[in-house]
Amino acid sequence: MIEIGALRPDDRDAWEVLARGYKAFYRTEVPDEGYDLAWERLLKGDEVFGLGARLDGRLVGITHYLFHVTVWDEGGCYLQDLFVDDTVRGRGVARKLIEAVAEAARERGMARLYWTTQEHNATARHLYDKVAQYKGFLRYDYPL
């Protein structure tokens, strides 16, 4: 049975393995200090939030999300990161994490939940096409 819940202080090592796997998948380098900062923010839980998926007590999936104001409606929830251990993919972990973030967004009165992924991420997109609507947006990053 998959259990979804808040990240706990003793999840740090397992969380970091999953977080590093996520960043490696997207070929994104993060220094060790970045993982420290992210973990501190997630545990504080006042600006960014994290959930973990546990299977038989083992952390096998993570998601990070945040809430923000918008100009036109009640606000949005951005699901920033979602990663599941490859040994348990296809067992509903990612879907349960998405549903848990959706519930948190509903509880906060948000008007929408959204996320991005890369075009080549066919496995994730297969799930995303089942649970959400692709509306054709492209993302551009402006270097600062």
From TrEMBL:
CDD domains: NAT_SF. Residues 2-144 form the N-acetyltransferase domain. This is GNAT family N-acetyltransferase. Gene3D superfamilies: 3.40.630.30. Keywords: Acyltransferase, Transferase. GO terms for molecular function: acyltransferase activity, transferring groups other than amino-acyl groups. The keyword Ion transport does not apply. It holds the Pfam family Acetyltransf_1.
